[in-house]
User: Which sequence fits this backbone?
């Protein structure tokens, strides 16, 4: 156990991954196997009072929360109970060290799971913290296929902060159009956009005004859409594990009249800081501590507001219920409206506050082996509206990269090297750009194993005048250090010197790139496999906003036959 | 060419299949390869003015009409352009002699085609006539994936009837709920029924009253939903090739003021008879001759009405336009309302009129080797509403039967023999029956190769009091002789003697079983393969109303690797 705790307590010295490997080599006395049996099905449900087909796990959306302890092996048997649709589930934030085929990323690490078939995901949860899982196939996440993963510390080890109760808060946005229809619109010429969500969900519950429901089945008294109630005992401290599975929206979450102390993000301890409200982007998780320290004779609103995009969705509401008040008693006040939706500086400043907690810092390598600059743009290709990085709009191949790279099926995807940067001298990120040379590609960034890689994510104007969106980028298979954020164009000479935090940067798996801004990250390519890196907005990745990294694929063991069955993997021998 | 024509003209003597094989052994001078490249995609369309996602082929629903000549080889490269859904296409009425893997029946003859992949169907169209194609996977046919196949005679050979022009009429029913939602409802407890269709489509065009559309996009002036116009020249004779792809409805088709002479059904010439209107069931095709012999100064309605179920859908309308009147000029009269919806006798009598055309009769074997009686009932199993035959509700296995039987993967489906009959002595077909012993099964009827098989389809009351539905049963891989239809309970002693037509029965691939009635068919199990036989109502087959026959599977050649990739076919060696 000492070998395992050492890197946590002594992280200034021991490199992170080294420490982890050391930890793995010493069996944890408490390590268990956590086995789940799930069936994925379509269900008619009313998350925001309007009846709609959802994709559920064992009948529920959000799906069951996976509860495990650090070092446990999680086995999830996923039976695809859909009629004609395949599926795949990604374990977001779990690095899949030694099990890259369990990452659940269709087209990257596996073929999809066919209807009627069962795929077994098996992986070790090597770090404590708050993670999520969700479909990584088409836009199925938007249809409701998602949930939480909570990994606790081994017995006898404590978090570096105290709380009385642990509660889960999953945030999402919700549309009434099916994801099939949304996707068809995104692929159409002219482009058909689903517009802003009809409602925001807190733990799967929202509220839509049924008087606007037309001929749809909508019942505002359906218990499925009664607001989530978080009951608190006066004086107690609550750890809220907040995660965003949003398809599109950047969120601001606030509990009326209560401060929140941020203590964890993406499985890493944060040097505590206090906020009135928390900005959270799709794919991020946060733990915040909230003390029930307000006047206890009433209830308070928990409010979810859209930021970064001009909101056209009512505030999502839950009830922060002081025991023993009636849990359904509406607070007497108006719900918090959140910060100004277009106050980018407010959000940038909150991002800059997030640093690793003292005593739990893993310092990054002080130098890097490679810098890849990724310009994020909206483009038009052959009449289609797309997103691109460095003018390349990503498409998934039909043979998953992990199989293609391991088995050298090089004809299954482009062998050209994707660009390391963009034409910085001539590109004006503040202007609507035509980007006339944008192309589709499924080429891969191949990384030298164990090398250190910096990524500069450079935001730009979209195809709409005076508009730049927030893009939360998520890296599979790794945590990265967040070296810095800044407004405007990244300056490769001065910004690393003046704006990089090489002392106590937070490690994360998902980070926002703010409108017209840049975000710099660093990671070590030490996890053999093939890993997606993409904007976590469901439609943006669908429209090409992503890339793929390969590193040390020659070190990956024999691939399980269960990930094969599509594209050219058909032709491989099976065992 | 003589070798090929012989069985048609001399069918009284030459057994049908023998004649076909003879034909195949003599290369037709005119035999061509007809190659089609299709992409299956979701599209936003408005077939009845209300915008809805449809599954289209090359952007259209109905898809392209396949035009070929007898003896041609048809090659259809189907690219699955759906995002997360698989597909498979069945060539309905094509017997697939020698190509049982091209039947396109997911779970029976192939694994589904994955998104992004291309499957090549290749088969010979060995008989002239009117056929259809459609998805045979989940309920995708209902989403719009269907079209027509027209096979003409070889050059220099004429039909035994004359006409000036050949026109295609495809009939369908249409719902606004997605097929995913419909299927989820059918699988739910309690059962959720989609109810009657919102509109009826003639060549893919219907009309819905947009004032009832709620918040849906609906535009009654959208050209996509302008009525189909059939322009005729006064005095000319039109061959209308009419087919029904209905998901649910039994149809009656009528052209106001014009008689129709029935001359073909399911690729077989009919001894001509005249009708005022034509009953047509899902999966059937008819050719009728219509003479433009009415007052030419006006247009007339072509009207599509629902029969057998109490209609709750407006009459489907097309315009029978006398040239040179304006094609959009509405006829001055009310559209035909069709026969009484519940006049079963009227429909039974029309069925009884359908006999093989003189000179084109293929007499059936006079005796049979096996009689299988199939009681059609509605059942409840574990709380689910289901259909069953002989109390067995069919489920598809995950390894297609053709692969499982050829490769002896006997663990992949039930090896028990499904029942040959039901408890005739104690079952009252006129009563609501609880059928408490109904079970699910994927067992197969194994037929002796080249044996003659009779099937007695016995209808019964559904779970609704005083209700019995019409079930159009479709047999893959064969035509069958329609030996007889009758009301009430089939009498195995007297009905074969008194009611069977062994002289000039029509051959078909789809035949209706009328409410509370029976239908007897005969076929020769001479086509090596595995063949579905099922109610062609999309929801009924989905709910278990079907069986599967195996015959001579040991004679089937090496299976193409392309049909594999699901269930236990993964494990087979590939070449």
Assistant:
């Amino acid at each position: 156990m000492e070998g395992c705790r050492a890197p946590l307590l002594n992280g200034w010295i021991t490199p992170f991954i080294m420490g982890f490997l050391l930890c793995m080599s010493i069996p944890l006395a408490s390590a268990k196997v956590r086995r789940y049996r799930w069936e994925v099905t379509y269900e008619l449900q009313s998350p925001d009072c309007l009846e709609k087909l959802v994709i559920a796990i064992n009948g529920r959306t959000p799906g069951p929360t996976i509860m495990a302890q650090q070092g446990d092996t999680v086995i999830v048997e996923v039976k695809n109970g859909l009629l004609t649709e395949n599926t795949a589930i990604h374990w977001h934030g779990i690095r899949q060290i030694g099990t890259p085929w369990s990452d659940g990323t269709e087209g990257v690490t596996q073929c999809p799971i066919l209807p009627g078939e069962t795929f077994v995901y098996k992986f070790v949860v090597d770090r404590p913290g708050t993670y999520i899982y969700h479909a990584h196939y088409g836009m199925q996440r938007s249809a409701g296929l998602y949930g939480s993963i909570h990994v606790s510390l081994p017995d006898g080890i404590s978090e570096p902060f105290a709380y009385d109760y642990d509660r889960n808060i999953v945030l999402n946005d919700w549309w009434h159009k099916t994801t099939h229809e949304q996707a068809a619109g995104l692929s159409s010429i002219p482009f058909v956009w689903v517009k802003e969500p009809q409602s925001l969900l807190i733990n799967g519950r929202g509220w839509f005004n049924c008087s606007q429901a037309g001929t749809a089945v909508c019942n505002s008294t359906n218990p499925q859409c009664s607001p989530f109630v978080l009951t608190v005992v006066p004086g107690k401290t609550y750890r809220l594990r907040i995660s965003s599975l949003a398809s599109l929206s950047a969120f601001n979450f606030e509990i009326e009249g209560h401060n929140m102390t941020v203590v964890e993000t993406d499985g890493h301890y944060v040097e505590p800081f206090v906020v009135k409200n928390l900005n959270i982007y799709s794919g991020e998780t946060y733990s915040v501590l909230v003390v029930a320290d307000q006047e206890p004779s009433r209830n308070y609103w928990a409010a979810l507001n859209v930021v970064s995009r001009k909101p056209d969705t009512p505030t999502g509401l839950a009830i922060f219920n002081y025991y023993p008040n009636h849990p359904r008693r509406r607070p007497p006040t108006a719900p918090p409206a959140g910060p100004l939706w277009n106050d980018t500086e407010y959000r940038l400043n909150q991002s800059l506050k997030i640093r690793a907690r003292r005593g739990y810092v893993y310092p990054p390598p002080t130098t890097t082996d490679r810098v890849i600059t990724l310009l994020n743009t909206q483009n038009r290709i052959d009449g289609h509206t797309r997103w691109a990085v460095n003018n390349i709009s990503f498409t998934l191949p039909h043979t998953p990269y992990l199989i293609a790279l391991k088995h050298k099926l090089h004809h299954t995807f482009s062998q050209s090297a994707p660009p390391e940067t963009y034409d910085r001298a001539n590109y004006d990120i503040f202007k609507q750009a035509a980007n006339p040379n944008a192309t589709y590609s499924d080429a891969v960034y191949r990384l030298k194993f164990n090398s250190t890689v910096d990524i500069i994510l450079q935001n730009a104007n979209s195809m709409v005048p005076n508009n730049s969106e927030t893009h939360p980028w998520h890296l599979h298979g790794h945590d990265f250090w967040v070296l810095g954020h800044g407004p405007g164009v990244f300056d490769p000479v001065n910004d690393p010197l003046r704006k990089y935090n090489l002392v106590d940067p937070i490690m994360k798996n998902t980070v926002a790139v703010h409108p017209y801004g840049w975000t710099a990250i660093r990671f070590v390519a030490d996890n053999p496999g093939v890993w997606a890196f993409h904007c976590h907005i469901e439609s943006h990745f669908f429209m090409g906003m992503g890339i793929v990294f390969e590193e040390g694929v020659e070190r990956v063991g024999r691939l399980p036959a269960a990930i094969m069955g599509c594209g050219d993997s058909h032709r491989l021998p099976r065992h």
The longest helix of chain B spans residues 16-25.
